[in-house]
Amino acid sequence: MMITQPQIENPVIDARHVRKTFKELVAVKDLSLQIKKGEFVALLGPNGAGKTTLVEMIEGIQKPDSGEILLFGKTWKGNEQPLRQRIGLSLQETHFIDKITVWETLDLFASFFGIKRDRCEEILTLIRLEEKRNSYTANLSGGQRQRLAIGVALLNYPELLLLDEPTTGLDPSARRDLWDIMMKLKETGTTLILTTHYMEEAEYLCDRIVMMNKGEILTQGTLEELLSASGGGEQIEIQTHQPVDLGELAGNPVFMTYHTLENRLVHTFTVTDTPAAVQLLLSKITATDNSIRSLKCTRRTLDDLFIEMTGQHLSEEA
Amino acid sequence: MSASFWKLVLVQFREFYREPAILFWSVVFPVAIAATLGAAFSEKTEIHQTIGFVGSLPKTGSFSELVKSGAKDDHGQIEFKVGSAASGQMILHLKQITEDSAIVFLKRGIIPLYLSRTSDSTVSFHFDKANASAQLAYFMIQSEPGQLSAEEKGTTIQPLTLPGTRYIDFLIPGLLVFGMMNSFLWGIGFSLIEFRMKKLLRRMLATPMKRYEFILSLMVARLLLAFIEAGILLTFAYFFFGIYPQGSLMGVILLFLTGAFAFTGISLLVAARVEKTNIGIGFINAISMPMMVLSGIFFSYHNFPETVVSIIQFLPLTLLADATRAIFIEGAGFGDTLLPVGILLTIGLITFSAGLKLFKWH
């Protein structure tokens, strides 16, 4: 099921056989990944999948034990200053200096890049914190603080943006706000790597989803590719009033998988053609005195895919 | 009590002993402080005190009787006991010195008072009546059986109130450098730990910010604040107590700058690895509190045993306090500051480079 990516010419990120261990723990093992200019890539995986370690190696904060990472064709060694100028990033949960205002924070970080103040105004508008300009960072809400973190990451017009779980712990509307900011970046040709364990986030923002587990790439591709490669289709869950044996239907090519509980009241199918499948199920069930108690059709999700591949949920919250 | 009650108690205990910093702070530190202070002010009934004597000793009279009752100590000075077993005894070591050095010793807190001969049989006491240990020594001597009251015996008390011999003269230079030390240890050491804890250090390093500029900015900001703080304290001291540096002002500034450098180095070393501010507080206190007690900021460190004193003299705060005090009250010149400045620079260089080497930026 592994979807291999074709070789990319002049990739923005080129990680080759990267490996990183912390004492006994292998955080990233022999991982290779190429990302082209302008691509939005999500690293999706449960906690401990190695997403943060991979991102930190790309950021130049961690050094791989073996293998190498090239950014814009250059390694970190000897190129730190020029690379820092071209990269923007936000960490998991950023705190700023408590009694320093939003504006002062932007102004400080802009000075590190040698950027004029006009850019701070632009950023302030982009992250919609104009009204909070003179608030201490300690008094910002979680969503506002995270928007400021993204704003700081964008100050230097980064060609490559690395966001480590930018929306973890935020409520849905705050998450939406951040997504809107990132969608605006798409037009500027920025390359984005985002770690997340929210499937919707990866789906909404990213061109490519890289699913990671235990330090390895499990599979990657667009959402459509991932779901169809795993057989695609939708899921039907049907509950009947009387127990019924639907096993014989599973032979029909419309049904891909079939699972039923011991009481034979709850049945789960993955199907290629939902209307056809429902027709077949209805006629089979109503042929006797039995009737349908409930029927649920859902699209398969990456979480379903992940469970299928690893036996685990993607997100602990799921 | 329910099982959960005891579990709650246990949780408190676990939290306590699993945090090494707290363990140090609440168990080791008080014992260490008690041991050091105990060494200086132990409950032994005999307190040793050096007093000065200017000129030749009287041949007759009750004071000469008192001196004759004594013996020579290890340094060849006469030592004699005053007081009783019931009230506690004081062993006085008589240091024969010139009047000039008596004043210097008085200012440095080595002696609380000195005596001088007024006739063949009488002596006169010189001390600041606001100085408690001087008063104590005086009354202990006067309380000796056979000693009559000052008036009857013809002894006189010469009050000393000239600038430089008052307690406030001793205190101000000490407070000046003590404030500076705290300003640096907390302002740099604690800030760095907080920056690290909030991941701000990491965040800032992901920009082209230069590391040396960051460290330098902390140092310069602190230095400016420390100068302002010192300025306020000195203005107050000048208008209320008439205290100002009698010696080299350049010397004071040089000492201040090198002290700032040494304490920046120490702060950097303290903050090099610490991840959490609550542990950092313990570390910083563990450095500043002993120096506050030992370095002669609030009282002279000459009461400590000689072996301890030889170590205390080289603590950065002691070096700074002694040299600053010498300029303020003894009128020491620029040249006198060079030795302490040299030692402070060395301490600064060692701690600064060790701190940078060990420093965890991520």
Detail the topology: elements first, then pairings.
The complex is a heterodimer of chains A (318) and B (362).
Chain A: E1 13-22, E2 25-35, E3 40-44, H1 51-59, E4 66-71, H2 80-86, E5 87-90, H3 102-113, H4 117-126, H5 142-154, E6 160-164, H6 172-186, E7 191-196, H7 199-205, E8 208-213, E9 216-221, H8 223-229, E10 234-240, E11 255-260, E12 266-271, H9 274-286, E13 292-299, H10 302-310
Parallel strand pairs in A: 3-7, 3-8, 5-6, 6-7
Antiparallel strand pairs in A: 1-2, 1-4, 8-9, 10-12, 10-13, 11-12
Helix pairs in contact in A: 3-4, 5-6
Chain B: H1 3-17, H2 20-40, E1 46-54, H3 62-68, E2 71-72, E3 78-84, E4 88-97, H4 99-108, E5 114-117, E6 123-127, H5 132-142, H6 150-153, E7 156-159, H7 167-197, H8 200-205, H9 211-241, H10 249-270, H11 277-294, H12 306-312, H13 316-330, H14 338-358
Parallel strand pairs in B: 1-4, 1-5, 6-7
Antiparallel strand pairs in B: 2-3, 3-4, 5-6
Helix pairs in contact in B: 2-11, 7-9, 7-10, 7-11, 7-13, 10-13, 10-14, 13-14
Task: Give a structural overview.
The complex is a heterodimer of chains A (318) and B (362). In chain A, the strands form three sheets. In chain A, strands 5-6-7-3-8-9 form a six-stranded mixed beta sheet, sandwiched between helices. Chain A has a four-stranded antiparallel beta sheet with strand order 11-12-10-13, with helices on one face. Chain A has ten helices and 13 strands. By secondary structure, chain A is an alpha/beta fold. Chain A folds into two domains: 13-228, Rossmann fold, CATH 3.40.50.300; 233-299, 2-Layer Sandwich (Alpha-Beta Plaits). Chain B has 362 residues and is an alpha/beta fold. Chain B has two domains: 46-159, no CATH class; 167-358, no CATH class. Chain B has 14 helices and seven strands. A seven-stranded mixed beta sheet of chain B has the order 2-3-4-1-5-6-7. The interface between A and B is medium-sized, with 19 and 12 residues.
